Amino acid sequence: MVEIDKYMDTRTMVxxxxxxxxxxFCNTPYYFGNWSGKGVYDVISEIEMLVSKFxxxxxxxxxxxxxxxxxRMLKICKKIKEKNIKCLFGVLCxxxxxxxxxxxxxxxxxxxxxxxGIESGSELVLSKMNKNMNIEYIKEVIFEVKxxxxxxxxxxxxxxxxxxxxxxxxTKNLLLTIKPHEIRLHYLSYRVGTPVFYxxxxxxxxxxxxHNNKPNVLNNEISEDIAKLIDELKDEGYDIIIxxxxxxxxxxxxxxxxxxxxxxxxxxx
Length: 269
Ligand code: SF4
Prior knowledge:
TIM Barrel, single chain, alpha/beta, binds iron/sulfur cluster
């Protein structure tokens, strides 16, 4: 019903499901279970179909964590190269599954956009989330990926239970150090089935089960620091997107968003 050539040029595909991580707020491991991926042949066939029949110029791998199996990703890259597929790609993955060589090989065949769910600049909050990551390592990875040439998006949860003023300040410091091109800020949604939901079930009301872009368990002290964080990001040249906007008229390159934004913007060969 639409002229596909005039329609948007970015498509999405899902090449794997599940995760090896067990972050307490995430329903992926509790719903999809352990990671499993489609075979290389199927992934390549789908890419070719999207390019030839649906005018895809850019494809986002909308997996939960696309880089768990490094050998599989390297084989996908090899096939894209062998078949000389002309397309740009984006990928959602985790710092835990980062591998510099793999990310470089991905870049060579057209991957240009990468998302990492970092979620906090405080190691204490990260450990409460069951995300045992080292802040120095996070910085190292983001600097490397930016240097390779990727456009980088990171996501953060501002109001994870137990977060204090100093944790928000640590998140702010991390953001101002790594300066991703795009930042997704979230308030926690307590997804049924996740550990954080069961841990807090008794104090939640139903409006807090879903993404509503509203603070859930913030106290005033943290609210003020979140406001300061947003002000400092504005000073750094980020545009703050709170609600839906017209992406045809928005040319902002540095974005902080509280809502999903259009994929494929500023992915260049
Ligand atoms: S790494 Fe990402 S997908 Fe995996 S469990 Fe954690 S939040 Fe979920």
